[in-house]
Amino acid sequence: MDIQQLRDALTQSDSSVRLKAVLAAGTHPDDAALDVLVAQCSHEPDFYVRDMLTWAITRLPRDITIPTVRAELASPIPQARSQALHTLSKIRVPEAWPWIFPHMLRDDDDEVVRVAWRLAVAIVPEGSEPELADVLVSQFDRGNMEVKTSLARALASLAAWYTPALDLVDAATRSGDLGVRIHATATRAIIHDPEIGFAGVFAEAKRSLGG
Question: What number is the average pLDDT over the span 61-72?
Fold first, then answer.
């Protein structure tokens, strides 16, 4: 498949056609396809095609993919930013820390910020854990249950090896803001037992705190 064929396939309304085209692009990597693949990430509506796009991009040389993907972090399109973050997590780019911290951990878009939290915990440099923990706990009571779960899981992952994060979560359970107290209390529960479901402990925290 040449580049024009790839472009044409990605305009098709049938997601299976787009999926097959991206699979072909990843199976037979061509540097010239990078811009087309990255551009598609910003507006591709199908989850499976987006996931395949990330895979296809990671099949290309790092020296060209990383600068191109990094540029998408500044896109005004939220999906472009979230896909760029996801791709960086798959490429494993520790140098991405200053590209995302702290602004992308407070992004206005909930999907972007969820991916940013996960990536930040994975690549935080030694010595920057306190700053990361501070930013994460500042986001307590943000968003819907999916967003709250993502933040709690990010903090649980961080606390698994950076124990002072638990102290910050404990402090948040005494916040004057009821929503923060509830979220922090539920987060503390999954830090102690990562196997339990967050929605259940959140509901319990809400009942016990009178939320």
Answer: 96
pTM over 0.85: yes
CB 10 within 8 A of CB 36: yes
First to last CA, the chain: 57
CB contact at 8 A, 197 and 189: no
CB atoms within 10 A of CB 94: 10
Enumerate long-range contacts of 64-72, CB under 8 Å, 24 or more apart: 64/31, 64/34, 65/34, 65/91, 66/91, 66/93, 68/34, 68/35, 68/38, 69/38, 70/96, 70/99, 72/38, 72/41, 72/42
Contact by Cβ (8 Å): 131, 97: no
